[in-house]
């Protein structure tokens, strides 16, 4: 028994005629007759009383018609119901991002998305870029934000944002008098960096080695506030993206103790990319988030 058996049966019952049902279904009358006979043989009952003038349902046929109509209706509406449910703007998106991500930028992005799609839940997981990349590859999360250009063979991606690195120095340090800080001037300074599971950690060390020195790292952490407080205590110099640095307006008490200066020679950029596993299926909710972020990124780039 398949859908065509049920469809032919309900059509004959509705038209009370094999010939009329055949014309409606655009098949031969003999094909319908054979299908109904096969259905009766499978069920072990007679479904129709046949005579020269009309076709009438038997008692068994009337009972079977109730069930058959339900199945035919569900089957015929299956595609429509699926598409309607699939296109519903709901679901959950799992997003991994480093704590170093520009908080105001990302918070505004999430807030704007939730206004447009209030029924979509966003679950955020904070890890270093390296762990975010691994989690995306292993399918543990849908999407990731990482702070380095992704490998094309592993990920699909698009550029999200960039931010120059700054140096946070205690006011008692002679370097605080400089307007900009060349990286080479940090050769003999104690540095506070993000942990080695952050791509920015590797980028800073690589740039130090390129100009001829191994940095003196006194402290590694994933906590931005701890990095800043280490500089406030004059225990080390912190390197952070400019958006994460304290300002006189946002942190007046901190700003009494430290100064923030641009890092130059070389200028190191903290970049952000959105990634997802190459060739991996994305849910409708995840695709909506991607499309929303891409659109916002294009708008920002054109402003």
Automatic annotation (TrEMBL):
Gene3D superfamilies: 3.40.190.290, Winged helix-like DNA-binding domain superfamily/Winged helix DNA-binding domain. GO terms for molecular function: DNA binding; DNA-binding transcription factor activity. Coiled coil: none annotated. One of its GO terms (cellular component) is cytosol. Keywords: DNA-binding, Transcription, Transcription regulation. Residues 1-58 form the HTH lysR-type domain. Belongs to the LysR transcriptional regulatory family. This is LysR substrate binding domain protein.
